[in-house]
Amino acid sequence: PAGTAARAKQDAWTFRILDEVDAVLWAAARHSFMLPEEERVPAVKDSLKVEFARNMERIASEMTSDCLVGDDLTVPDFLLAHCLGWARNAKFPDVPETLVAYLARLQARPAFQRAAEL
Fold it and tell me: What is the pLDDT of residues 6-31, one digit of tens each?
């Protein structure tokens, strides 16, 4: 619930995933195909991949349970799962095994499989 320590932790992870993962992937996408060609800087993607890899190492090292915020799935889990798939499709660096296993657990859930079918 709003106003609890658990909610603050969930919100912190949500903003962190948006800042350290989603924003990096989005910047790479903009310089790959979103911006007009004359505004793209393809070389920026190399530094974004380094930043992504560094951020993934830190996130993996801080995971202490099956989900980001305790034992239950929360919004940041959905965001991170989405971003991990996006990164794979965008050919970003491999992520630590901790995050590979994390994504596999989420993808094995029946609800994830139903959503993926849509």
Answer: 999 999 999 999 999 999 999 999 99
Q: Which two tokens stand for residue 68?
A: 């980001």
Q: Which residue has the tokens 């790959």?
A: 32
Report whether 94 contacts 57 (CB < 8 A).
no
When comparing pLDDT for 58 and 117, which is higher?
A: 58
Q: Which amino acid is at 113?
A: Q
3-state class of 116 per DSSP? helix
By the 8 A CB rule, do 80 and 68 touch? yes
- The answer to whether 88 touches 25, Cβ cutoff 8 Å, is no
Contacts of 87 (CB under 8 A, 6+ apart): 21, 25, 52, 95
| DSSP state letters, 15-57 | HHHIIIIIHHHHHHHIIIIIS-GGG--TTHHHHHHHHHHHHHH
CA distance 39 to 77: 33
